[in-house]
Amino acid sequence: MTTPLLGLSLPELAQALAPFARERFRAAQVQRWMTERRARSFDEMTDLPAPLRAALGERFVVGLPEVEARTPSEDGAEKFLFRLADGAKVEAVFIPAPRRRASGTGERVTVCVSSQAGCALACAFCVTGRMGAGRNLTAGEILGQYLVVAREKGFGPRAANVVFMGMGEPLLNVANVSRALDLLAAEVSPRRTTVSTAGIVPGIRELAKRERRPNLAVSLTAAEDALRTRLMPINAQWSVRELFEALEEWPLETGRRVTLEVVLIADVNDSPEAARALSRLARRVPSKVNLIPLNESPEWLPGLARPADEKVNAFGALLAASGVDVTVRWSKGLGAAAACGQLKGRETPGRVLRVPAPSVRS
Ligand code: SF4
């Protein structure tokens, strides 16, 4: 039985390596190989003595996930389907940097990672939610998605934004997500990291205690309780009022805002009344609204359609006219698939599962 080293803090790594390496600097050396240098195995760590590499190989593995499939898209995005050590499947998405500005300054690429294999929250517009609950990913499994994408796409430290918007609800796995954020901080500044939640209020409060907080995004989708509960059953546990109380207390540094994500579904939440209700709510906290026209999936989301572009524009214009900062994510490719709830973790559709939202309220 081999133990993964990815996900251990430096002191934990030093403790694990102590029986095999007398020199104290070996732990930092191994960690640098695993992260900055994206090594997959101890054999690649060529400045470690060969006997040490052999000894480590007998007891440990780095612990990167296996790439089972890659799906590139025309817009330069690429989806990675990973198989974890126990056979669970999760997805991550690489999104290329926006085009270079006239000034020549390039933007960063984005990596969207999963935090759970599956999701129990059963949002109506979500493909992952149709799979039902899965297990929490470890910090190493979360970090590993980023590292494999970085290795395969050839980018180094400080070149990426990382968004926790893949499969699963990050704040139902807050301990491992928090540890992954700590480990990622050497590569990606917290200002370049975003955690997206469906509205797990205790998780938001827990994350708020961190000294170096990521950006916060909330998958809101509807401003009124009745409609939001229909689309996002978790709203029955933490209402819009409770969610916004937590957002009002979220400690925002100067210049930072909360992102409110709204998946727009034709004739469900795209009316002028829905826009006005959203506008009233959005103005309660420093925020920007991200409109995401539904990424249709007739097989997984039967009966749900993407609104016509004019309707999306009209919805956005209403918000903008009331002073809300709003953007529309028009991408129909994998860039759109990186939105919360648009990943499915398997290559072919399977049985559609309908699971009730879990009782996660403490
Ligand atoms: S939208 Fe996010 S929280 Fe909701 S079911 Fe999908 S993955 Fe879970």
Protein architecture, described:
It contains 11 helices and 12 strands. With 362 residues, it is of the alpha/beta class. The protein folds into 2 domains: 3-61, DNA polymerase, domain 1 (Orthogonal Bundle), CATH 1.10.150.530; 66-337, TIM Barrel (Alpha-Beta Barrel). Strand 11 (287-293), helix 10 and strand 12 (325-328) form a beta-alpha-beta unit. Helix 4 packs across helix 5, helix 6 (201-208) packs parallel to helix 8 (240-249) and helix 9 runs parallel beside helix 10. The protein binds iron/sulfur cluster. Iron/sulfur cluster binds at residues 119, 121-123, 126, 128-129, 167-169, 198, 219, 340-341.
Feature tags:
alpha/beta, binds iron/sulfur cluster, 10-stranded mixed sheet, 29% helix, 12 strands, 2 domains, two-stranded parallel ribbon, 362 residues, TIM Barrel, 11 helices, disordered C terminus, DNA polymerase, domain 1, single chain
